[in-house]
Amino acid sequence: MRQLLRILTALILATAALRAAGTPPSFTVGWSVYVGWNPYQYMARSGILRKWADKFGVSIKVQRFDYAPSLDAFVAKNIDACTMTNMEALDMPAAAGVDTTTVIIGDYSNGNDAVLVRHNLKLAQMPGKRVLLVEKTVSQYLFERAMTLNNQAGELKRVKYGIGVVENGTGRRLHSGLKLPDGTMVPVGGKTGTGDNEFRIYGAQGGLLGSRVVNRTAGFAFFIGNRFFGTILAFVPGKEAANYKFTSALAVQVLKI
Q: Degrees (nearest 5) of the Cα angle 210, 214, 220?
């Protein structure tokens, strides 16, 4: 906790000089439920965060998200900071061209992660069973690494993942699938993505000299059942894109309509 406060204090000190320019700077930190990230909620509720923010003339808001939507919000630049694993930092913000700096290393996976099972199942018994996790995230990586370390790599194709990107992420609006006129539910899956694209000019010393908005995009690549697939893309070109804050949730909602 002391290390966390020291780093947040450093961030506050770095922006305190902006007070003289007008309205105090405001920052939003997104977090999701995980034991290593829960202190953010405690600091916000206990008043610790506000105490230090007031001292240095800034405003800090702590906002709770589900994990995948928190990443989308950060990539879309709707929040200023976000708790995430280093794998997701490389997979989403960095891949989308969003400048990302690691400020706090809260914990690491050295026995902090576990597979919770019913009926005393062992890893060797997992093939053919339903495993609930968010696919394409560090959760899937750690599970598959555990299987590999226990000589079960060849059985991974038999594992049934029960929660995908659609069921626990931006696409959760379609988690129950699409209902046909006869009442049959057709499963829907896919992957979302948001891009706030800019052209930036940097000086010889690495400093940002200028930037201009290029466009804003939000997409949803999806499949419906085992016969249909497609892509929905929301796109705003040019400088007008700076006036829009939509995320890939918009593309998902269009498909739902």
A: 135
pLDDT at 166: 47
Question: How would you list the strands of the sheet with 59-64, edge to edge?
Answer: 59-64, 26-31, 81-82
Over the range 158-178, which residues count as b (16 or more CB within 10 Å of their CB) and which as e? ebebebbbbbbbbbbebbebe
Residue ranges of domains in the chain, CATH in brackets: 1-106 (3.40.50), 123-163 (no CATH), 174-257 (no CATH)
- Tokens in use for 13? 């000190």
| φ/ψ of residue 239, rounded to 5 | -65, -20
- In the block, tokens 């466009």 appear at 215
Q: What is the pLDDT averaged over residues 37-56?
A: 90
Strands, E, within the chain: which ranges?
Answer: 26-31, 59-64, 81-82, 130-134, 160-163, 178-179, 185-186, 188-202, 208-224, 228-237
The answer for residues whose C-beta is within 8 angstroms of residue 212's C-beta and 6 or more apart is 198, 199, 239
pTM: 0.52
Q: Hey, what are 256's tokens?
A: 């739902």
Please provide the distance, in angstroms rounded to a whole number, between the alpha carbons at the two ends of the chain.
46
